[in-house]
Design goal:
This protein is an alpha+beta fold and 339 residues long. The protein contains 11 helices and 13 strands. Helix 2 packs parallel to helix 3.
Length: 339
C-alpha cells in the first residue's frame, strides 16, 4: 500500500474525488469545490455569500491569528469582504492548560478586530492523539454581484502581478519553529526579523486585494499558500484553462528568506507563501494596479503573463525557457516533518 505524503493530495487525485463525490445539486452554488478555487460562492439574491474553510497545521505559535488571516485571504481573492469567522479548535490531550486556550482565543479576537470580522461560533475540545493544537477556520464574506472576481475570467495576454515577494509565511514558520537552532547559526536579531514576517511584510493580503479590485477591473486573483508560487501559478492557469510564462528574475525573494532557504536546501518557489497575492489584469491595467499598490505601501512586480493553454507553463531564466517546477510536497514540510 502506498501512503500519501504530508500536505495537499496530488491535484489529479483531488480533481477525480471532487468530480466523483458531489453531494446534492444546488443551482444557487455559483462556485463549488474545484482544484485551485479559493472559496465557495453562493447566490443570496442581491449579493453573493463567499465561504472558506482552511486549517492551521504547520504552525504551533499564533495559530489563532494565522487562522483568521489565512481564511480572510481566500475571501478577498474573490473581491469579497470578510465578515464572519467560526473556528473548530482541537487541543492535544495532556498538553493543554487554560493559558494555551486563552492565548489562542485572544489571538483570534485580535485578528478579527483588525479585519472588522465578527467571531461567530465554532467548537472547542481536547482531542486524543494530537501532538499540537489544530485550528480549522471557517470564514464567511459577501460581495456585490457585479464585483465578484472569478478565476475563470483570466485571459491569454493578462499580466501577472505578484505582491511582496515569495515564501513570506515559510520564512516566519521556520524562524518560529526552528528558533533555537537558527539563533545559534544566524543570531537573535536575524531570527527576530524573520519571525516578524508574520506581521511585516505580513501574511495578510486583504489590503492589496481590495486595493487592486478598486484600481481596475481585475480578471483573477489567487493567494499563494501551500506549494508556494509554483503551485499558485499552476492553479491559476489550470482553472482558467491557460498556460503561463514567468520571469524568475522578476520574482522578489527577501534576504531573510534567501538565507533560510539556502541553509535548509529549500527552493523558495515551492515554499508556503501566504502573504503573497497573484493578480491577473489586462496589459493596459497593469500600471494602474501597480501604482495603486505602491500608493498603499505594497511592493509589487509584474512577473509574467498568462498564455494559451497549448503553450504550457514556462519559467524564464536569463531569457531561456526552463521546465516549470513542481513539488510533491511543500518545501517547508520536508523540514518541519522531521520533528
Amino acid at each position: 500500500m502506498k501512503y500519501l505524503p504530508i500536505g495537499k493530495p496530488d491535484p489529479e487525485l483531488l480533481a477525480r474525488l471532487l468530480e466523483q463525490y458531489t453531494g446534492a445539486k444546488d443551482r444557487r452554488l455559483v462556485i463549488g469545490p474545484a482544484v485551485g478555487e479559493d472559496a465557495a460562492v453562493i447566490d443570496f439574491g442581491d449579493r453573493y455569500l463567499v465561504a472558506k474553510s482552511d486549517p492551521i497545521t504547520y504552525a504551533t505559535e499564533r495559530i489563532g491569528w494565522y487562522a483568521v488571516h489565512i481564511n480572510a485571504n481566500d475571501i478577498v481573492t474573490l473581491g469579497a469582504e470578510p465578515k464572519w469567522f467560526l473556528a473548530t479548535l482541537l487541543l492535544p490531550e495532556g498538553k493543554t492548560d487554560e493559558g494555551l486556550v486563552r492565548g489562542i482565543f485572544a489571538d483570534m479576537a485580535r485578528a478579527s478586530k483588525e479585519l472588522g470580522v465578527a467571531l461567530s461560533g465554532g467548537h472547542t475540545e481536547v482531542t486524543p492523539g494530537l501532538d499540537r493544537p489544530i485550528l480549522i477556520g471557517h470564514m464567511l464574506g459577501e460581495v456585490a454581484r457585479d464585483r465578484l472576481v472569478l478565476k475563470t475570467n483570466a485571459r491569454p495576454g493578462d499580466r501577472i502581478i505578484l505582491t511582496k515577494g515569495i515564501a513570506i509565511e515559510g520564512t516566519a514558520l521556520l524562524a518560529r519553529e526552528k528558533s533555537r537552532e537558527l539563533v545559534t547559526h544566524f543570531g537573535k536579531a536575524f531570527v527576530q526579523r524573520a519571525k516578524r514576517f508574520l506581521l511585516e511584510p505580513g501574511i495578510s493580503i486583504v489590503k492589496e486585494a481590495l486595493t487592486a479590485a478598486k484600481a481596475a477591473r481585475v480578471h483573477a486573483m489567487h493567494d499563494l499558500t501551500e506549494g508556494g508560487l509554483a503551485a499558485g501559478i499552476r492553479e491559476m492557469a489550470e482553472i482558467a484553462g491557460l498556460g503561463a510564462e514567468v520571469d524568475r528574475q522578476k520574482i522578489h525573494v527577501l534576504p531573510e528568506t534567501e538565507k533560510l532557504c539556502s541553509y535548509y536546501g529549500l527552493d523558495p518557489l515551492g515554499t508556503i507563501a501566504s502573504g503573497s497575492l497573484l493578480i491577473a489584469v489586462a496589459p493596459r491595467d497593469s500600471g494602474k494596479v501597480l501604482s495603486a499598490l505602491e500608493a498603499e505601501g505594497v511592493m509589487a512586480e509584474d512577473i509574467g503573463c498568462l498564455r494559451e493553454k497549448a503553450r504550457g507553463l514556462k519559467l524564464m531564466e536569463d531569457g531561456r525557457p526552463k521546465v516549470f517546477p513542481a513539488f510533491e510536497v511543500d518545501e517547508v514540510t520536508r523540514i518541519l516533518s522531521r520533528d
